[in-house]
Amino acid sequence: MKYIVLVPDGMADYPVAELGNRTPLEAARTPNMDYIARQGRLGRVKTIPDNMIPASDVANISILGYDPKRYYTGRGPLEAANLGIEMEYDDVAFRCNLVTIANDIMIDYSAGHISSKEASVLVKAIDRELGNDKFKFYPGISYRHLLLVKKGADQQLENINCSAPHDITDLNIAKHLPKGKNSEIIIDLMRGSRKVLEAHEINHVRIDLKENPANMIWLWGQGKRPDMPKFSEKYQVSGSVISAVDLIKGLGRIIGLNVINVAGATGYYDTDYKAKANAALRSLEDHDFVFVHVEAPDEAGHNGDLREKITAIERFDQLVVGTILEAFKRKKNFKIMILPDHATPVSLKTHTSDIICFGIFGKGVMGRGFLNYSEKEAEKSDLYFDKGHELMDYFIKS
After folding, report:
1. What is the pLDDT of residue 285?
2. Which residues face 41 on adjacent strands?
3. 331 Cβ partners below 8 Å, 6+ apart?
């Protein structure tokens, strides 16, 4: 039996007036997801537990079958796992964004989606100037990087209240700087990075080219090393994870999934959708489970870019869902599940805790007469999971 989970990050949204009060998903052309809805079953699931932030890490932990209230410690440790950073029990890992600040306003949470090559040079410069035996900066991909604080738990840094930079776009950063006991340690690093970055030649060139400079780091998403049971122990299947972002790959490593790096997978609009689908098909030759994550719809939501969000949804449907569906729909021993991890409405440019829709098609799944895959159509379903981590049990075990 083969189990395939496809996650278009942040695809869910709200009705948009200029789309005739349809959501981007309803407006997009999605024949393959619609096929799954018509031939299979729709349902709704709450991936963000009450009183938890509507973040991708929380949501994807839920989707993979783990209770975030029990296992979630922060985003940083998950990304550290993918970078191969060994964390001691009392270490604290922070996500480190390269951002663009102007007049103390968060202009761009991604510094113009800076290239990994440029970013690596900048992060290494920060580490030379601000790093020491206690603080170590690690380059990642594009604007997404990492700070490891050795023995940071001794100062309770994991308990600081930090804001995600994509949640404060166009806002003054003063009110959103880290808060709580010993937060000045982290604020000093953020402020210190401005002097290093503003003087760097790479940013001078970016400004000359009319590109957003990476002129500050933003530290957030911190936590200690998580302790989670292996996916194979929970579900008795071996599996793989495919994503362009360290968060998802790190989560996969922690729970024992094989992490597949795909050439051309960028985590942005230009990602190679079909390469991800083909990699998933190859992985299923040796494994029984694959988890494919695509970041592009979420990035479009954060950018408030309606056109790009619809395009990302359509490419996901055609090149990921369509490619995998074509390979499997004449076979018998398989099940496919599609669901966004959370909503990222273009009107808000940030994540929300809204209940999202899922679709399941394959062995043992009887069609229920649904017309298409959409938020509105899923509201007709009587299948609902208030605890998101229970959905994977239903998908694999039922």
Report:
1. 96
2. 360
3. none
Amino acid identity, residue 78? L
Model confidence, pTM = 0.87
Taking residue 268's Cβ as centre, other Cβ atoms within 10 Å add up to 17
User: Would you say 16 and 22 are in contact if contact means Cβ atoms under 8 Å apart?
Assistant: yes
Candidates 274, 68, 258, 53; CA nearest to 164 is: 53
**398 vs 381: CA distance, rounded Å:** 18
CA distances to 130, 237, 256 from 168, in Å: 25, 40, 34
* Domains delineated in the chain: 2-71+227-397 (3.40.720.10), 81-223 (no CATH)
Alpha helices by DSSP H, listed for 4-43, are 24-27, 31-39
What is the per-residue pLDDT across 289-303, written as a single tens digit (0 to 9) for each? 999 999 999 999 999
Report pLDDT digits (tens) over 8-30: 999 999 999 999 999 999 999 99
Distance CA 71, CA 225 (A): 10
Hey, what are 159's tokens? 């308990």
Strands 144-149 and 135-141: antiparallel
CA distance 84 to 79: 9
Q: Which of 268, 246, 228 is nearest to 94 (CA)?
A: 246
374 Rama sector, left if φ>0, alpha if ψ -120 to 50, beta otherwise: beta
DSSP state of 333: S
